[in-house]
Amino acid sequence: MREIASGLEFPEGPVAMADGSVLLVEIRRGTLSRVAPDGTVGVVAELGGGPNGAAIGPDGAVYVCNNGGFAWHHVEGLSVPGTQAPDYSGGRIERVDPATGKASVLYTHCEGRPLRGPNDLVFDRHGGFWFTDHGKIRERERDRTGLFYARPDGSLIREVVFPLDAPNGVGLSPDGTTLYVAETFTGRVWRWRVTAPGELAGESMLAGPPGAALLAGLPGYQLLDSLAVDGAGNVCVATLVHGGITVIAPDGRVLEHVATGDPLTTNLCFGGPDLRTAYVTCSGTGRLLALDWPRPGLRLVY
Prior knowledge:
Neuraminidase, five-stranded antiparallel beta sheet, four-stranded antiparallel beta sheet, 0% helix, globular
């Protein structure tokens, strides 16, 4: 396990680039940033609010889920996000030109309802993307949110699953036929069968979210954040409190837990020539780590 960069302001949404750098967001700083192989950090775009998940789209642009901002706290030496920011700027999906840093807002609403706290996204082979809305927490209330599908040209946004309980990480199986979503507070990963772009087939309307089947639920007090799928189809989900990466097989078996020492381990991506390097965001301590992964990661569509 190697430290690539430190001093980051709650890093999330890592994207491994072909030149060896890693794009990521710094939620507290409000930026899309680039970490060079030597650990140098540069700002790609000033986005404000709370940039969260990030992914490369079919046009080479970076698409960012922006949660609108958190109130921040320091707890036992860690940077910890809290309730909705006093200057909350609204949830949105943004498009960033990585060459110029120019950012534009793609979506702020769906079917007349405002996006509250978009969190993570994944592109499919058809050029559209799935994204979760984690919602926002206020002093005595929390948003009910769901799972969405959208096109990167601004022509379509649909709410596909509602409600979910603080949905966070989202990913697709290697063949694109299964969609996974991690819920933070329940510590559960759900799965659906993908039947067409933006369409899911369910197994049950009675247990859990509409149409969902339970892949896995972690015991004890473990919260889930973002996820990545590896080349074998395992769901590698960042695990809060029990800080690290929990690897779950497609049949729901927990294969291993890779500890990082940061209880706010939030995300990972795969990079390197053979996709055997996992880049992990340790957000509470503001670090980007790299470690050799026992299996190749899944090569993303774009």
